[in-house]
Amino acid sequence: MENERKSMNFQPISMLFVAMLVGRVAYADMITYKDGALDPFLETTYAGTEDVGIFHESNIYHTTSNFGGRGDFSVGRTITSLSGVGHSFVRFDITSFADKYQFIDSVTLRLYQNFADGSGVVEIHEVSTANAGWVEGTQSNGPGTGASTWSKRIQGSESWAGSVGASTAGIDYLTPVIASATHTTSTTIVDFQFSDVSFIDDWILGNNSGLYLRAETEAVRNRVAYYSADTGNASLHPELIISFTAAVPEPSTYALFAMMTLGLAAIKRSRRQGVSIGSVTLE
Question: Which sequence spans correspond to the domains of the chain?
Answer without folding.
Answer: 2-15+251-281, 24-248
